[in-house]
Here is the input.
Amino acid sequence: MSPDWGFDDRTSRQTGRAVIGVDEVGRGPLFGPVVAAAVQIPHAARPALAGLGIDDSKRVSPARRTRIFRALLDHAHIGIGAACAGEIDAVGIGVATMLAMKRALRAFADEAGVALIDGRFCPPGLRQPSQAVIGGDRQSMAIASASIIAKVARDRSLGNFARFWPDYSLQQNKGYPTAAHRQALKVFGLTPAHRRSFRCGISA
Here is the structure.
């Protein structure tokens, strides 16, 4: 299944509101923030995005993700939010993910749109009405777009972290628990951006 405009258009007709897609990346890594994005695509922008192959970020190559990311920056309304490793350790990854989504939605006015949240749950206390969509990044173009924005934004942040901590190969593993990353942890220990509540393989 690939996303299309039909899902978003049906939701818009049913609610009488424009659709804002929301998705996150970075729940599983040992390192760095969880990042969420919220994306609203005007109807007038659709021709400019046609043919780019917008899809779930996990099914899009890095080069194509970058092209889509740049096009969305030019043609869509976008919000990005994050929760850092310290917040993840303090409240847990589930709550931190909800915080990142709420922060992404701050880019939109209180009354703007209906938020389509990828997954089973919606963040509590949103200013907009919301709807959870299981597998939303393979149904909704807005959610798929949000997944790409969040993925590219997080990957770029990992590039910045890699300049401070080059020994962890962050640009290659993006903070996920690869064998090389776990070996680096054994040799060099935890950085301030590692999630101490996760099983990093060494004591904090």
Notes: The first helix runs from residue 5 to 15.
